Amino acid sequence: MQRVAVVTGGTRGIGEAISLALKDAGYKVAAVYGGDEAKAKAFTHQTGIPAYKIDVSDFKQVKDGIAKITAELGPVDIVVNNAGITRDGTMHKMTPEQWEAVIHTNLSSCFNTCRAVIDSMRERNFGRIVNIGSINGQAGQYGQVNYAAAKSGIHGFTKALAQEGAAKNITVNAIAPGYIDTDMVRAVPPQVLEKIVAKIPVGRLGQASEIARGVLFLVADEAGFITGSTLSINGGQHMY
Ligand code: CAA
């Protein structure tokens, strides 16, 4: 049976690598994107993976979007909550808009997608949910109270939903990436990034494909005994 996977933020960065890895492994993939229309078109053209424009921070849009994906591809077996943004700034400069945008896009999105698929997963007695957290949700990061709070929230969300899903063969796990070579990390001021990379024992940024590998491991049918866990993929930068 070809399982259906939804990847949010699935046309760029880490999400793009996840969408591609899932497709190559034989899954039917729907890549959800928020705004970059041109990139999404190019992505579908290159990969054959359909892209769906859905604002993941909007409950109604997600509900309708998942219904559309279900009608076109079939019931959703796998959700990878990867969509995320940064609006970095120290507390004394951060606006309520920066706080809210990050909390809603990075954390409320997990509620929105999971709420939209959970009934169907429970009925079918199968589900694989992977939430992309962050090293900065585990350890905190200067200039990121919003992002660290949202990502840390993802780790709690994962453990709570894992307990609810267990009896229905719905596993819920998180991956906590470290600094990965994507547009998001390239936006960090170079002098700041240089200091961060100096603290990574492996001595380099990670690659998006190295996160995708972890996702493949966690969504497999055979991974039914792994739930509520966090897989840290960070080059040794934070061990706990
Ligand atoms: N620890 C302690 N002090 C720090 C610091 C740190 N990590 N970073 C900066 N400072 C200090 C600076 O040295 C500076 O001090 P002085 O005034 O004494 O020189 C002071 O704080 C102000 O720093 P900035 O000039 O950088 O302040 P700013 O307001 O212009 O910018 C900032 C602040 C936006 C937070 C900027 O430092 C920044 O962009 N930092 C990067 C944050 C980061 O790592 N984001 C991760 C994005 S990638 C991601 O999130 C993906 C993931 O999951 C890993």
TrEMBL record:
UniProt xrefs under CDD domains: BKR_SDR_c
Superkingdom, natural source: Bacteria
GO terms assigned for molecular function: acetoacetyl-CoA reductase activity
Pfam short name (any one): adh_short_C2
InterPro entries: Acetoacetyl-CoA_reductase, KR_dom, NAD(P)-bd_dom_sf, Sc_DH/Rdtase_CS, SDR, SDR_fam
EC number: 1.1.1.36
Keyword ATP-binding listed: no
Ketoreductase domain residues: 3-178
Keywords: Oxidoreductase
UniProt family annotation: Belongs to the short-chain dehydrogenases/reductases (SDR) family.
Name of the protein in question: Acetoacetyl-CoA reductase
